[in-house]
Amino acid sequence: MTDQTINEGLENVIVAETRRSYIDGDAGELVIAGYPLAELAEHATFEETVFLLWNDRLPTAEELASFRADLAAYRDLSDATLDLLRAAAADDADPMDALRMGVAAATLGHETDGPEDEARLLVAQLPTIVAAYWRLRNGNEPVAPDGDLSHAANYLYMLTGEKPTDAETRGLETYLNSVVDHGLNASTFSGRAIVSTETDLVSAVTGAVGALKGPLHGGAPGPVLDMLLDIHNSGDAAGYVEDKLDEGERIMGFGHRVYNVRDPRAAVLSSAAESFYESGGERAFFETAKTVETTTTDLLSERRPDLSLATNVEFYTAVLLHGIGIPSELFTTTFAIARVGGWTAHCLEQLDDNRIIRPRSAYVGGENREWQPVEER
Ligand code: COA
Q1: pLDDT of 220 strictly over 70
Q2: Which of 51, 127, 135, 170 allows an S-S link to 140, with CB 3.0 to 4.6 Å?
């Protein structure tokens, strides 16, 4: 008799070894390929982090230059992809749906040579797809990428048509590095399962985008921003939070399935947001966020001393991305622009030592049924 134990949601089931990232939920630690997140957030460009995830080491100056050139070569969208995005814009598609369509079409007009090359194409294309779609949906023509700008700066440039400030680029880069990988979350696992059939990475990442789109995965920073704007206007953090808790609602941006303490990404993003707002953003908005964090943490621990509910990644994501000028409708697509680094890294790791991912299910359906002709049903 084979083991019939069911682990719903695969909770606590280990299905792969990985060198990509390590999470310690009790200590509140996130390690990316051996480097504590804070270390990368302070020093790394997004290109360096992606190279690190793919190769398990940092690039030399020469490798970094060559990687930047590879990304620049793949950044333009083909006319066919642009036509597709125009059709999506005419239909007023949700940005994540448009991204899914654009990713699925990424090979149109671009030849790739094996999984590593597909990974480069995907990382390069996502910001261009999102920015082009956003402009088209707002009645503007897409802005072509600028080969002299970094990956993060290009995204901001293609969104607005204006070169971003260093502070904006650095803020976005810290965000991208903070959320690039996070163990076997649902979208990363989906990507690994798809590529384990030895299909291509474009198919795997298309599936991963679909998984990220679900509200249980990529969706909280928009509501966090709404809450913070509301409290910023009223000036009454405690009143807002108490009313929500009295109504039995959850406070967005607090609590996490894996972390029992403050999410380490919240710490990194909070410092990044503070530096950003000090260098020119609306400092008072950042102060509101800090007040909401302390007030909510205090109220939650008063009401639920049995739980440890601290700020999660979404809270300061909302603060930072809003400061940089990314519209909240693009928060999840911006998350995808970061996470594609992790998706592709996991796909390459899966292919390195592949075994098709093929779990079993416990059958609980009917037995010994007899066929009935259609006219008798
Ligand atoms: N505000 C108020 N109460 C919260 C809460 C929050 N943000 N998060 C969890 N709780 C409470 C729940 O109401 C529940 O109470 P109960 O025991 O009386 O039913 C208890 O904590 C456990 O919640 P549960 O949903 O089982 O925990 P989880 O580990 O599955 O939850 C989240 C993780 C992230 C889904 C949850 O904390 C949440 O919904 N947070 C708000 C949404 C959010 O910020 N999501 C982004 C995640 S990165």
Answers
A1: no
A2: 135
